[in-house]
Write a structure and sequence with these properties.
globular; 39% helix; 275 residues; six-stranded mixed sheet
Length: 275
C-alpha cells in the first residue's frame, strides 16, 4: 500500500547516469509510506555534464529534495546555494534539500559507509584502511574513516587525485593503482569506492596478499556480489557489500530532509527486495 498522490504531495528524486538500476525509489517510497509522509521519490536519468541544469530544474519545479549519484556529485555541489561543512570540504554532495528557496547540499556517503561497516561487526577506528578511488564516494569515505580514527591510504589512477583525497585526512597517504600491492599486506580494511565491479570487471587488487583478518568492502551494490567480494569471500575474508551503505546514507539523508527518524528496518527490507 502506498500513499495516494495529491496536489500537495512533495516530490524528491535521484539524479545519476546510469540510474535505471537504482533501488533508491523503492527504499525512499517505502520509508515515506511507513512514516506516513506525503512525499514521493522518483529517478531522473541525467547525462554527464548536466547536473547543474538538473539542480536548477529542481529549484524551478519546487522539488523538495534530490539525492545525487555518479557522475554528478561535484557538479551538483557547485550548483547549491549552501553546503554543509562536510560537503564543503569534499566539494561534493549526495543529498540536496530545498529550504525557503535555497538549495542546501549535504554529504552522507562517508558516515553512511562507516555505519554500514559497523553494522557488519567491523570497527573501522584504529584500522589501516586502503580506499580505492578518489571520486565523490572515495573522498567521502576517506574523510569519514579518518574521522573515525583509521589510518587511511587512498589509491587512484591519477596521482594528483589520490593526493587530493588523502589530504582530507591527517596523515593520509596517496598511491597510484599500480603501487597498491605494497599496501595490501598491512591493510586491515580495503574499500572499493570506484564503479569497477558494476560491469562485472574485476578490481585490480590481489586479495591473496591480504591478511586473513582483513575486511573487504565494496560500495557497488549492483551486482551485490561483485568480482572483488566473490574473490575475498572465496579467500575466507570478512566482506561488506554496498547495500548497507546505500541504506545508511539514505537514512541519514531522509532524516535531514524530513526531520523524522528513518524507518531503517523498512528501508533495508526494500533495498533487499528492490521494492
Amino acid at each position: 500500500m502506498t500513499n495516494a498522490l495529491t496536489g500537495a504531495t512533495k516530490v524528491a528524486g535521484i539524479i545519476g547516469d546510469p540510474v535505471s538500476h537504482s533501488r533508491s525509489p523503492a527504499i525512499w517510497n517505502a520509508a515515506f509510506t511507513e512514516a506516513d509522509i506525503d512525499w514521493v521519490f522518483v529517478a531522473f536519468a541525467v547525462p554527464g555534464g548536466q547536473a547543474g541544469n538538473a539542480v536548477a530544474g529542481a529549484r524551478a519545479l519546487g522539488l523538495a529534495a534530490l539525492t545525487v549519484t555518479m557522475p554528478h556529485k561535484a557538479d551538483a555541489a557547485s550548483a547549491c546555494d549552501e553546503l554543509s561543512d562536510t560537503a564543503s570540504r569534499l566539494g561534493a554532495v549526495n543529498a540536496i534539500v530545498q529550504r525557503d528557496g535555497r538549495l542546501v547540499g549535504h554529504s552522507t556517503d562517508g558516515p553512511g559507509f562507516v555505519q554500514s561497516v559497523r553494522d557488519a561487526g567491523v570497527d573501522p577506528g584504529a584500522k589501516s584502511a586502503l580506499v580505492l578511488g578518489a571520486g565523490g564516494a572515495g573522498r567521502a569515505i576517506a574523510l569519514a574513516l579518518g574521522e573515525a580514527g583509521a589510518k587511511v591510504v587512498v589509491a587512484a589512477r591519477r596521482e594528483a587525485a589520490a593526493e587530493d583525497a588523502a589530504a582530507l585526512v591527517p596523515g593520509g597517504r596517496a598511491v597510484v593503482f599500480d603501487a597498491i600491492d605494497a599496501e595490501l599486506e598491512s591493510a586491515q580494511l580495503v574499500v572499493n569506492a570506484t564503479p569497477i565491479g558494476m560491469n562485472g570487471k574485476a578490481t585490480p587488487l590481489d586479495v591473496q596478499r591480504l591478511d586473513a583478518d582483513a575486511c573487504v568492502a565494496d560500495t557497488v551494490y549492483h551486482p551485490r556480489e561483485t568480482p572483488l567480494l566473490a574473490a575475498a569471500r572465496a579467500r575466507g575474508l570478512k566482506c561488506v557489500d554496498g547495500l548497507g551503505m546505500l541504506v545508511r546514507q539514505a537514512a541519514l539523508s531522509f532524516e535531514s530532509f524530513t526531520g523524522v527518524e528513518a524507518p531503517l528496518a523498512v528501508m533495508r527490507a526494500a533495498a533487499e527486495t528492490g521494492g
